[in-house]
Amino acid sequence: MNDSVVNLSRRGFVVSAALAGMPQLVKAEKTAPPEPPAGPSNPYTYHFKIGEVDAWTISDAYFPIREGLGLMWPEESREEMKGLLSREGRETDSIPLYANVLLLRKDKEIILFDAGFGGSNRRTVGWLRHGLAQIGITPEQVTAGFLSHAHSDHLNGFVAEDRAAFPNAAFYLRQEELDFWQGKDPDFSKSKRNKKSLPGMIKTVRKNFEILGENTKLVKDGDELFGGLVRVEAAPGHTSGHSCFRIRSAGEELLHLMDLAHHDLLMFADPNWTIAFDHDPKLAVVTRKKYWEQAAAQGTRCYGFHLPWPGLGYIVQQGRKYRWAAEPWRWA
Ligand SMILES: [Zn+2]
Are residues 72 and 201 in the same domain? Predict the structure, then answer.
């Protein structure tokens, strides 16, 4: 619908309302509602519970990636992927990228899982700080931030204007991720990623790691923190130090899948389908299959950084395929 159609139909409504003797409606037309404010216009915080812990999912970003299925591998399966998207009524010429940031509050601990893209002049990117403000949390109140891996959509939000964006937060990551980026020559030989962007990307990651240096705390596969609330799990392939997180409270569990899936149909219909952002696609597939099999068998409640907002759901096995069963929204 364009503006002229809106204006015409509105004018038509006013005339017919006046004829019907409804002066209050005509009066209301004179004070048109203000334009919506610039900035995030979608719903972007959603509260839920994990046992006794308060949790929020905060949308940091949403935009379509124009390369679309050109980013997906193997190349010979792209027609099949397109058919699937088309049958499900999805766009076939782009891949929608959601960035969902998980936040937990337990007593005085306020814990972030990745921090999104950070400051950006793109209207649909970098909403985390708006989301935190909406639920009344200042950057200074955040006590911990876990990093799954160092790609810009996960790491950059931890830094603002060359300083730690959350100055009082410990910054947790695994040694493997730090070592990969700080190594002399990070190995991207197995990745389908556009190699032109690599030098700039490596430079930014190193700079951000340096800024966060004082706050950094290294964790290992299997480590449990905050009295068992957060368990760190090695989930290599997307990057060498890519981690998933298992959150447990009062008998309930949430498995944060991070970047094991970038789409709610593609990586589930066939876990062998990979995205160009994977550093080691074969290993990413092995890890994904392990997690899908286990989460489906155990009926684990899951959460995806890149799955459609608000990112909660279950993995359902159907023969050799899987399906992402998004959890319906609940108003509470
Ligand atoms: Zn990502």
Answer: yes
CA of 15 relative to ligand 1 center, distance in Å: 52
Task: Summarize pLDDT for 196-237 with one digit per residue, the tens.
Answer: 999 999 999 999 999 999 999 999 999 999 999 999 999 999
Q: CA-CA distances (angstroms) from residue 81 to 71, 72, 306? A: 12, 9, 18
Cα of 53 vs centre of ligand 1, distance in Å, is 25
Same domain? 11 vs 52 = no
What is the count of structural domains for the chain?
A: 2
CA 328, CA 332: separation in Å to the nearest integer? 13
Is 246 strand, coil or helix? strand
| Count of other CB atoms within 10 angstroms of residue 220 | 10
String of DSSP letters for 255-293: EEEETT-SSTTHHHH-TT-EETT-SSHHHHHHHHHHHHH
CA of 228 to the centre of ligand 1 (A): 26
